[in-house]
């Protein structure tokens, strides 16, 4: 877990990634606030090799809530650039997860999705995207990626999991289209693949591109693991460098969770697609997280709630595993024996 790893032109000092976690602390216009500077700045002191910033909307209508971060306007760049610069000053790399909530946008304004099928009774019925609407969303992802580059981010992650727009296209639960963007697995893949290709074109060749997928919908109506393998193979061929493997989110019923419950999905994608993967899901016990890497089941471990409880989880894990601890200079005396 503390070995370095490289993707394209980027080398991470270790294999610990702070998983993207929505904070719902942005201003109503999507601009980063002091909360984000303090939150991500404190995470930069905690021993991770990579911090992934929360789901950041590529369109106003694609926000999960009206307190989501945005990258759909040039005015969003400055606040994120300040945050990125501080993280870099601590020797840590930082990425951003570009997202569109689709039918899971909890907003007053009209929302969009592959089909006019709402997520649950609490959500409004979305408008099915037209061909012109698909073009707009694709262009929005590419424009947000260019703004992320301008802000200085090291990695782009496309959010195609947890029931948000790109996952909605992949899933037969939410995609009822009868045109070229629905039906078969190849049809359901077509629009998410367009987005991946557009983002890859929009960013530098030496910049890594990650994608987060839900490997299971925990629902018999959903896609199969074989279909997910097909999706990930196409993403890999389109220039994705790592698949961040989660699950669920496209139906209101959550699965039963336990430590490491999603690791088998990550391992399957790693072995069958021959692509680096990140494993996520209650991996905050250092011995477990390290074993996932040692056993070749994943290339990164993504830690979420562990870092919320202990912003120095990376240093805590190093001590637990008998690995040298390298905290910021001002904190070094806390680790003297």
UniProtKB/TrEMBL annotation:
GO terms for molecular function: FMN binding; NADP binding; NADPH dehydrogenase activity. Its cofactor is FMN. SUPFAM superfamilies: FMN-linked oxidoreductases. Keywords: Flavoprotein, FMN, NADP, Oxidoreductase. Residues 1-319 form the NADH:flavin oxidoreductase/NADH oxidase N-terminal domain. InterPro entries: Aldolase_TIM (IPR013785), OxRdtase_FMN_N (IPR001155), YqjM-like (IPR044152). This is Oxidoreductase.
């Amino acid at each position: 877990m503390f070995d370095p790893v490289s993707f394209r032109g980027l080398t991470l000092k270790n294999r610990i990634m702070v998983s993207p976690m929505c904070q719902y602390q942005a201003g109503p216009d999507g601009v980063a606030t002091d909360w984000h500077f303090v939150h991500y700045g404190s995470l930069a002191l905690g021993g991770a090799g990579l911090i992934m910033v929360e789901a950041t909307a590529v369109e106003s209508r694609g926000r999960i809530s009206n307190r989501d971060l945005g990258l759909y306007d040039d005015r969003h760049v400055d606040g994120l650039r300040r945050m990125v610069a501080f993280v870099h000053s601590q020797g840590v790399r930082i990425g951003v997860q570009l997202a569109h909530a689709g039918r899971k946008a909890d907003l007053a304004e009209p929302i969009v999705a592959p089909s006019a099928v709402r997520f649950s009774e609490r959500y409004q019925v979305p408008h099915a995207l037209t061909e012109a609407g698909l073009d707009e969303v694709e262009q929005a992802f590419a424009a947000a990626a260019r703004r992320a580059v301008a802000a200085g981010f090291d990695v782009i992650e496309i959010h195609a999991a947890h029931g948000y727009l790109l996952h909605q296209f992949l899933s037969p639960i939410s995609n009822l289209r009868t045109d070229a963007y629905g039906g078969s697995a190849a049809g359901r893949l077509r629009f998410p693949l367009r987005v991946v290709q557009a983002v890859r074109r929009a960013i530098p060749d030496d910049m890594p591109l990650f994608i987060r997928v839900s490997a299971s919908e925990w629902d018999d109506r959903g896609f199969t693991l074989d279909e997910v393998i097909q999706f990930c193979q196409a993403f890999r061929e389109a220039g994705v460098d790592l698949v961040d493997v989660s699950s669920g989110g496209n139906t209101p019923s959550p699965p039963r969770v336990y430590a490491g419950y999603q690791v088998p999905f990550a391992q399957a994608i790693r072995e069958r697609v021959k692509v680096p993967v990140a494993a996520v899901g209650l991996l905050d016990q250092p011995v477990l997280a390290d074993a996932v890497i040692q056993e070749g089941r994943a290339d990164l471990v993504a830690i979420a709630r562990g870092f919320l409880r202990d912003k120095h989880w990376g240093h805590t894990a190093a001590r637990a595993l008998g690995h040298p601890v390298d905290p910021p200079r001002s904190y070094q005396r806390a680790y003297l024996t």
